[in-house]
Design brief:
single chain, 196 residues, alpha+beta, Peptide Deformylase, five-stranded antiparallel sheet, two-stranded parallel sheet, 4 helices, 26% helix, globular, iron, hydrolase, Peptide_deformylase_sf, Peptide deformylase, metal-binding
Amino acid sequence: MILPIVAYGDPVLKRKAKDIPKDYPDLQQLIDNMFETMYNAHGVGLAAPQIGKSIRLFIVDASPFAEDDNISKEEKKELKIAKEVFINPTIKNEQGDEWDFNEGCLSIPEVREDVFRQPKIEIEYYDRDFNLKHKTLDGLYARVVQHEYDHIEGVLFTDKLSGLKKRLIKGKLKKISEGKIDVEYRMRFPKLKKNR
């Protein structure tokens, strides 16, 4: 089932998410719905807060990046199989010189900005069958995971921008939070307080 994606301005996107138990109700169905929602919106990652659930769960399928001609054969190979479920993840370490990449977000449509992140991460998480995993990720795959991990920490990519960049996109963000945008996928907009 395709779920509505929560738009910028909803408090759930700024809340640190909670760990989920192994017996979380209908977890497999939720994961399947998240993949269907992500693919419908042409995304490469989706975190549970983006569908209104403040739980430590996100999914990633970075395989579309494998089509990029500017990346190495080795990275292309890794990206082609980069489809995973991350439950209760913890980034243990980030390494390397920060590099910038133009990021976007399904909760913040029509806004893309360069974000600096470290290229290599070590992460511990449970997969969809609740098997504990430890991985070292690098490059674009690490970046997608870092972006989704930020979501469960209550951090948006726009929070990482300079003061000037934030001021420049303020009007766009306001329009998104007010639902004054056209997108090709279902969205849920924040309930705005009426002026009294």
